[in-house]
Amino acid sequence: MKNARLPPLVALRAFDAVGRRQSIRAAGDELAVSHTVVSRHLRNLEDWLGVKLVEARGRGLVLTAEGARYHAQIGRAFDAIARATADLRPTARRSLAIWCFPGLANRRLLSRLPALEARLPDWEIMLHPTLARSDLSRGEADAEVVYLDEVESNERVRAELLARPRVFPVASPTFMARYAGIETIPDLLRLPLIHEDSTDQWGRWLDLAGIPVPQALSGPRLWHAHLAIEAARLGQGVALANEMLVEDDLKSGALIEVVPSDIRLCGYYLVAPAPRWDEPTMVALRAWLHELSICAEGTGA
Hints:
- This protein is an alpha/beta fold.
- Helices cover 40% and strands 20% of the residues.
- The chain has helices spanning 9-21, 24-31, 35-49, 65-88, 102-109, 113-119, 173-176, 200-208, 225-233, 243-252, 280-291; strands at 54-57, 60-63, 94-100, 123-129, 143-148, 157-163, 166-171, 193-194, 238-242, 256-257, 263-264, 267-273.
- Strand 1 (54-57) and strand 2 (60-63) form a beta hairpin.
- Helix 1 (9-21) crosses helix 2 (24-31) and helix 1 (9-21) crosses helix 4.
- The protein is globular and about 70 Å long.
- The termini are far apart.
């Protein structure tokens, strides 16, 4: 018999994140826990309620009718908690929370963050590397920088294309010294390829290059772009990278472009709530991004 009126808060937070992300793995990224922990919280909540909240559909999951109804109510409760917390917290030093895909956050923005802090001396800058999308309407972040095919503006959010950079294979000079005769894109298939979370990116890149994609592409999967690039820098194979992520390594000679190409996959977008787009803080953020030369002008996007 249940001896409490409320289920565990940690289970409710996991269910709320899954409902918004429609993905257990993305919910885990948001909550900074593994997807197995999120799955366990979901099972515990369903057992506590005696109701099925989610169901598998294809390669993902969706909320059941009961789950969708419960999620809407839970969401309003968390919104109320967020508003109450914001009203109570001291406002002497405000925070600017920026969610950003990990590769760009780690390899491009982090070292240049002091310039943004200088622009906003009274603000605490919070850079959060994550593959999850922020729910801007609920104040999870003030802005986000994402790497996607396309992001459209609407009445709630504004989106601006920052860059659609060229994507190309990179490796360390010492690694390439071990392989002779690598001159064209088909030659790459003779080399160890390094992948992110799946082989899809290499498959899409080869397809756009007009190269028949093998049924199976071998090589390690390292989940994040910055890990794949680091593995290439350490001489473990060839990784796909874009200009935003490896500019410094190319200049230093730590990485080289293996074969010439001009292929573009996704674009970097700045996304922020529409009502805040022209606030001084957002203007400063956009200006900072322009100074980093990751705006659409000058990148060939």
